[in-house]
Amino acid sequence: MIRLGNVKEAAAAIKKHIIRTPLIYSPYLSKLFHAKIYLKLENLQKTGSFKVRGATYKVLTNLNKIGATGVVAASAGNHAQGVALAARLAGVPATIVMPEWASITKQEATKGYGGQVVIDGKNIEESLAKAQDLSAQGRIFIHPFDDPDIITGQGTIALEILEDLEHPDLIIVPIGGGGIISGIASVINSMHPATKIIGVQAAVCPSAYESRLHGRIARVASKTSIADGINVKQVGQLTFQIIEKCVDDIVLVEEEQIAAAMLMLLERKKILAEGAGAVPLAALLKGAVALPTDAKVVLLICGGNVDSPLMGRILSQGLLKNGRIMRLWVQLEDTPGSLAKLLELVAKLRANVLHIYHDRNIRNTPIYITHVELELETRGPEHVKAIAQELQLAGYEMQER
């Protein structure tokens, strides 16, 4: 287990190396969920993630053991960047093993923080095995979550929360391997045990959820998730012990809810959260966590590292599923003015045309008929419904896509 005194020592040790991230109150989310919702913004941390806290503490507490070859870690993203920066700040070399599918953006970011990147492994397990091989050459291995120093460093987040918010009722935390929730739960259990700790996992990789369900560590299959930072097939030995003792509940969220949470944070709060960072809000959107009226609730936004192409796809899908984008297919007579008449009606309905595709070459279509595909920006589901009704009343043969 993690001692409160050690976490306080860690906070003092890493203080000058990290950012003390803000805890902000959200009037919009508070009104939406009938509670007092606060956001702990670890997406504003150095490297864009909480991971630098544990990595920095691990490096600093092992300086007397680190030799000329430095430290080694395996990660596809946030842990890689956190270890690279922590090592650079301490003046020691860092070798980071990344899987073959790691994004170029995260590879370059890791290099930019001073890490020597080694591409090896078709999955994280293979990358971890390579990192452990390299540790046999004298490097200090830094595990991403199942390490007491790492957990202790992550626990400093809870100290900051309690300094900024007196007696929170509930803290909702993402779970992957369990490092961050173990650190936070250890501190809360010691300092304010009345506060409930709820963990959230992506439903496509429910390793902690299944472990809690069966009372033992369970290894699960996983699918690709937009919450890639918590897509961990098996929790750690130490983290599972702490989760069993200190975490009140674990809930699951679907990909669609994660995307909706990311979109809501960006639109309503101007907060860029990665999938893992958005799962606490996704749990509220799903209704997976019961909130007492006016309860003080902290959502831990654990990171903000999103690849730009992925963010674009998430935004498009989120807008489409929320009825903010309407895609439709319309048949028109292929005569002058037909398209202009359609667009005039769309304009009167206060929809904004984002994309238009005009195609005369459709198999089994009469030669005098043309097909138009429109992508419209709308105000929401009711606006979409009104647009469809007005187009049908105007005599257009249409299908939503």
Which CATH C-level class of the largest domain is it?
A: Alpha Beta
The CATH topology name of the largest domain reads Rossmann fold
Biggest sheet strand line-up = 1-2-10-7-8-9
CATH architecture of the largest domain, please?
3-Layer(aba) Sandwich
Give the fraction of residues assigned to helices: 40-55%
Average of pLDDT = 93
The fraction of residues in strands falls at: 15-25%
Number of helices: 16
The profile of the biggest β sheet is: 6 strands, mixed
Rg, rounded, reads: 25 Å
Give the end-to-end Cα distance, rounded to a whole number of Å: 53 Å
Low-confidence parts:
none
User: What is the 3D shape?
Assistant: elongated
Order of helices and strands, N to C? HEHEHEHEHEHEHHEHEHHEHHEHEHEEHE
The helix-and-strand class reads alpha/beta
What is the total tally of β strands? 14
Number of domains: 3
Structural features, described:
This protein has 401 residues and is α/β, with parallel strands linked by helices. It has 3 domains: 4-49 and 149-318, Rossmann fold; 52-143, 3-Layer(aba) Sandwich (Rossmann fold), CATH 3.40.50; 323-400, Alpha-Beta Plaits, CATH 3.30.70. Helices cover 44% and strands 19% of the residues. It contains 16 helices and 14 strands. The protein has helices at 4-14, 27-33, 51-61, 78-90, 104-112, 124-135, 148-154, 156-164, 179-191, 207-214, 237-246, 255-269, 275-286, 308-321, 338-348, 381-393; strands at residues 23-25, 36-41, 71-74, 94-98, 116-119, 140-141, 170-174, 196-202, 249-253, 296-301, 325-333, 352-359, 369-377, 397-400. A 6-stranded mixed sheet has the order 1-2-10-7-8-9, with helices on both faces. The chain has a 4-stranded parallel sheet with strand order 5-4-3-6, with helices on both faces. Strand 4 (94-98), helix 5 (104-112) and strand 5 form a beta-alpha-beta unit. Helix 9 (179-191) packs parallel to helix 11 and helix 12 packs across helix 13. The radius of gyration is 25 Å and the shape is elongated. The N and C termini lie far apart (53 Å).
